[in-house]
Specification:
heterodimer; A: alpha/beta; 6-stranded mixed β-sheet; 4-stranded antiparallel β-sheet; globular; B: alpha/beta; 10-stranded mixed β-sheet; 9-stranded mixed β-sheet
Chain lengths: 253, 415
């Protein structure tokens, strides 16, 4: 479903350009959840930004295909309309735009790009109420400007809320566990698990094994120095937790 | 003894074609001492130009080579009035409503009225001298004696006219209240609107203004406001500008405990210029002023903000005043000029001001695009949200219409 082949990317311009992703290959088939773990500075967040098309990064080689389509040729909004979703490590505040307005605008923009009909107001409200309830987001919170004045945990729950509303085909979760207490972690994980589907793929980027207790990955990849240096099953995450990156990386090198 | 036309010409320094036409118009109106004094005040500067400090970014003289008919009718629809009372001013006529909000009386004055401090507001002085319609109304006086429960609308609208000069004077009696909604929708090559507002003790007034001229028109909207004891004045304006447009407010806290809010937003496309200028004098203790001006400008557009708070020694004690101006430069080639000034002589006051200009936040834009919102729509939505704060005080019956006007402008213009 998501296929990265020898992907390389730099950040910064001209002489300042620095290679962060360095020949990264990875394949996530539909229906699977893969985890990417890695030490600080390994390129985890850069990978999520390169895949979603954020400015400031330059792809210098390789390819990134979603269901055979070249992601790197598309604008960020086209990638989103193709079903690519990023749960941000640091969700951005959008003052003056209420959550409901924002999500409905996004949903209808995606639908319109795909040639689908807009969602009706009653259907939208019904669905947002249901999902809000699952994620402990009150209707009052959904009327407030997006992420403005929300706590760290609430922001992460809002990311999952948007993901559940938008029903992407492929979701990247960038350190969604950071800043969450145990209860919020469980709420978020329940949301992610509810989206598991034979037609959907997910990439979960995390520092710690903790989230993976709740979201059981099919595969775990270790990212270091801008490439995948080791791939294994869920047990690899447990080993990393126990032995640290140095232990596992030392063995790989 | 009345001045002759040639005397008048002498009073102008190098009158241009437009000023000569204005002198000719003056000569057609009935003679009156008040009119003459106002016109003399105008003549001392002529059409304001860039060599005058208060007009350095808003040059009417350069933009008005001659008084010519606009090539356009109204630039947009007036703010919706439903079945509320509407007063419409056009080049040659005035249409008055058959029924008025309770507590509102209209007095039609056919002779020119005096204008205090006319030298401070050159275009106000010009309007005071030239607002007379030959054989008809000169100044419309709106007297408010109780709480008017429905708004009163004023529409200033031309149809390929040369000028539309209008003068209105509002008196709010003690404890009375009026909501006034003004739509200045263009259609005249040169339109100028002068409104004087006298707030008596405990009166309150909410003024909502929409300004939209075309790129070949000059527009001035001048308000002179005096606040009595514990009176409240709220003003909210949305301006799309014109070839040159100025919304000027001179407000004086004359007695203690009054409260003023002056909010405005400007949205300027290529070829459009909008100027918000205000002068607030805290001439009495313990008065409050809150001012928020927001703007967004595209390539080839110009926004101007000039704000001044003047707090004299002793009488201005316990003033509480805050002035904020924030502008978005949406594209390269957009211009914003800002001059916030605090002139404070009293020593026990709380006065603050803030002034910023910049571009949209790329992090916000990327976040929105990642969710599938196309870039132009994301920019329009962020800009709309940015200016919304300045429109919150608009009268509730037209607040959505103002927001909609801003939204459709942004959806059409922002790329």
């Amino acid at each position: 479903m998501l296929k990265l082949d020898q992907l390389s990317a730099t950040v910064g311009e001209d002489d300042e350009a620095k290679t962060i992703i360095n020949g990264l290959s990875l394949e996530v088939p539909a229906g699977e959840v893969h985890a990417i773990m890695g030490p600080n500075g390994a390129g985890k967040s850069t990978l999520s930004y390169v895949l979603t098309g954020r400015g400031g990064y330059e792809v210098t080689g390789g390819s990134a295909l979603l269901e055979g389509e070249d992601l790197l040729e598309m604008d960020p909004e086209e990638r989103a309309a193709k079903g690519l979703f990023l749960s941000f490590q640091y969700p951005v505040e959008i003052p003056g735009v209420p959550v409901m307005t924002f999500v409905r605008t996004a949903m209808n923009a995606q639908r319109s790009a795909r040639g689908e009909e807009e969602i009706s107001a009653p259907d939208f409200i019904k669905r947002s109420r249901e999902l809000g309830k699952q994620l402990n987001l009150t209707p009052e919170m959904l009327k407030r400007p997006l992420n403005v004045g929300f706590s760290g945990g609430e922001k992460k729950r809002l990311e999952i809320f948007q993901m559940m509303m938008l029903e992407p085909r492929f979701a990247i979760l960038d350190e969604t566990d950071s800043g969450l207490d145990i209860d919020a972690l469980r709420t978020v994980a329940d949301g992610v698990n509810a989206l598991r589907d034979p037609a959907r793929g997910m990439l979960v980027i995390t520092h710690y094994q903790r989230l993976l207790d709740h979201i059981k990955p099919d595969k775990v990849h270790v990212l270091a120095g801008g490439k995948i240096i080791k791939t294994g099953g869920p047990e690899l995450a447990l080993r990393l937790e126990k032995e640290g990156y140095d232990g596992v990386l030392g063995e790989a090198a | 003894m009345a001045l002759s036309v040639s005397d008048l010409k002498d009073k102008f320094r190098n009158p241009g074609a437009a000023e000569l036409e204005l002198i000719a118009r003056y000569a057609m109106l009935p003679e009156s001492g008040q009119r003459e004094r106002a016109f003399e005040a105008f003549a001392s500067t002529g059409l304001p130009h860039r060599r005058m400090e208060a007009w350095k970014w808003t040059d009417f003289k350069a933009n008005l080579k001659s008084v010519e008919a606009s090539s356009r009718g109204a630039q947009c629809a007036p703010l919706p009035a439903a079945d509320q009372a509407v007063i419409e001013f056009s080049a040659g006529s005035v249409s008055l409503p058959t029924s008025l909000p309770n507590g509102v009386k209209l007095h039609e004055r056919k002779d020119a009225q005096a204008l205090g401090d006319a030298e401070e507001v050159p275009l106000g002085a010009m309007t005071a001298a030239l607002a007379g319609r030959v054989g008809g109304l000169d100044t419309l006086i709106i007297e408010v004696t109780e709480t008017a429960t429905t708004p009163l609308h004023i529409v200033a609208k031309g149809d390929r006219d040369e000028t539309n000069f209008t003068r209105v004077s509002v008196i709010v009696r003690p404890g009375a209240h009026l909501d006034l909604v003004e739509s200045h929708v263009g259609g005249a090559g040169f339109s100028s609107f002068l409104i004087e507002i006298g707030m008596q003790d405990g009166g309150s007034f909410n003024r909502t203004v929409l300004q939209h001229g075309s790129a070949d028109e000059a527009q001035a909207i001048t308000a002179v406001v005096n606040l009595g004891d514990k009176s409240e004045y709220t003003q909210t304006a949305l301006a799309f500008g014109a070839k040159v447009a100025r919304l000027e407010t001179r407000l004086t806290h004359q007695e203690s405990g009054s409260h003023a809010e002056l909010n405005g937003a400007y949205l300027c496309a290529k070829g459009f210029h909008a100027d918000f200028t205000s002068h607030v004098r805290h001439g009495a203790p313990s008065s409050v002023t809150r001012q928020v001006t927001k703007g967004a400008v595209l390539d080839g557009g110009t926004g101007v903000f000039q704000g001044k708070f003047h707090v004299p020694r002793t009488i201005g004690q316990h003033t509480d005043a805050d002035m904020q101006h924030q502008a978005l430069l949406l594209e390269d080639g957009a211009e914003v000029f800002a001059k916030p000034e605090l002139e404070i002589y009293a020593d026990d006051v709380e006065c603050a001001h803030g002034n910023t200009s910049g571009a949209l936040d790329p992090n916000q834009l990327f976040y929105m695009r990642q969710r599938g919102i196309p870039e132009a729509q994301a920019r329009a939505l962020l800009t709309e949200a940015f200016i919304a704060e300045a429109l919150e005080t608009a009268h509730e019956s037209v607040r959505d219409a103002l927001t909609d006007a801003a939204r459709s402008f942004l959806m059409e213009s922002v790329r």
